[in-house]
Specification:
- The structure is a single chain.
- The chain has helices at residues 2-18, 40-55, 73-81, 92-95, 114-120, 124-131, 174-182, 195-200, 211-217, 242-246, 250-284, 294-298, 301-311, 313-324; strands at residues 27-32, 60-65, 87-91, 138-145, 149-153, 167-169, 186-188, 206-210, 225-227, 235-241, 288-289.
- With 325 residues, the protein is of the alpha/beta class.
- Helix 2 runs antiparallel to helix 11 (250-284), helix 6 packs antiparallel against helix 14 (313-324) and helix 9 (211-217) packs across helix 11 (250-284).
- The protein is globular, with a radius of gyration of 21 Å.
Length: 325
């Protein structure tokens, strides 16, 4: 029995040595994101945690914190720059004030669906965006996708004109602001936690949202009308602290990259499947899908796209590569 135990321990030590980890190097790590536990980004985060623990022989254990429990995205960036938080999933919009080219992901009517956006994420423009995050103390390792963006509203939205002067909760981003202003609406930034009461009190008329968040937070209980505009993709960036990353061995980095790449690919399929499942769930809970004039929304997309394509060459590259796919 003792011999068997020693052999097993020697096998474990050998496996750890092959991965660049020593038995004494156990790390308690943190991963932060803003979405609820039902969201695909949380599932991807949990998969990274599970797979990294397995790949490292239990020496790298990640505690996942959803719903901004470790702070908002700006606060988490600061924590990661200090090395106090090691992993995060950020919205591309939240990082765009540090790397402007990430605004390219929010251009309206560029991506047909989640699968199209995910293919674009493997291209050179998307990968260059990740590399540029190092200047902000982050190492971008990949992307993860929520569903496409739609409109949930108190009253049915059958065309863009139905949004005239309506307050739409939108992500705080220049592209979102330009897009909703072009549609005649009043973009209104607020935390997801404030959306339900704001719909109830009619401080908001509508919400720009993906189906993952819609179902997870059940906003259809306050606003029952869903217009499947499919107007934008909504990727997140999987990033690690550069300060922490720089202290890792090459073997550790290779292990982490492999784990994140696997979770990235897995998450795309989860997001694709979730689009159908979430819509069925929302409809079963009473959400009304509104027939609408898609052309009325698409008509204002081109000027918004052109503005950002013209001002940033990397955005132009992403747009061109997306069109090529």
């Amino acid at each position: 029995m003792k011999t068997d135990f020693r052999l097993a321990r020697l096998g474990t030590v050998a496996a750890l040595a092959a991965s660049g980890l020593s038995p004494a190097s156990a790390q308690a790590l943190k991963l932060a994101h803003i979405t609820p536990p039902t969201h695909v980004w949380h599932q991807v985060s949990e998969k990274i945690a599970t797979d990294l623990a397995a790949a490292s022989g239990g020496r790298m254990k990640i505690a996942v914190s959803p719903l901004q429990k470790l702070g908002n995205e700006a606060q988490v960036v600061n924590l990661m720059q200090a090395g106090a938080v090691q992993f995060a999933v950020f919205t591309v919009g939240g990082l765009a004030n540090r790397e402007e080219s990430l605004l390219g992901w929010s251009l309206p009517y560029v991506f047909k669906d989640v699968a199209h956006a995910a293919r674009t994420a493997q291209g050179p423009a998307a990968r260059e965006m990740l590399k540029r995050l190092e200047a902000s103390g982050l190492v971008g390792l990949g992307y993860t996708f929520a569903g496409m963006r739609h409109v949930l509203s108190l009253q049915p939205v059958a065309s863009a004109k139905d949004l005239a002067n309506k307050k739409v909760r939108a992500f705080p981003s220049p592209v979102y602001n330009d897009w909703w202003l072009a549609n005649g609406a009043a973009p209104t930034a607020m935390p997801l936690s404030e959306v339900a009461p704001s719909l109830t009190t009619k401080l908001l008329d509508a919400v720009d949202i993906d189906l993952d968040a819609l179902v997870g937070l059940k906003f259809y209980q306050q606003a029952p009308n869903l217009t499947l505009t499919n107007h934008m993709a909504f990727p997140g960036v999987i990033a690690v602290s550069k300060k922490w990353w720089d202290a890792r061995s090459e073997a550790e980095r290779a292990t982490i990259r492999k784990v994140v790449a696997g979770a990235e690919a897995w998450g795309v399929q989860v997001a694709v499947d979730a689009e159908t499942a979430n819509l069925k769930k929302a409809q079963a809970d009473g959400t009304k899908v509104v027939a609408f004039d898609a052309a009325s929304f698409r008509a204002v997309a081109a000027p918004v796209r052109d503005k950002y394509v013209a001002r940033n060459p990397l955005i132009a590259d992403l747009f061109k590569q997306a069109q090529g796919l």
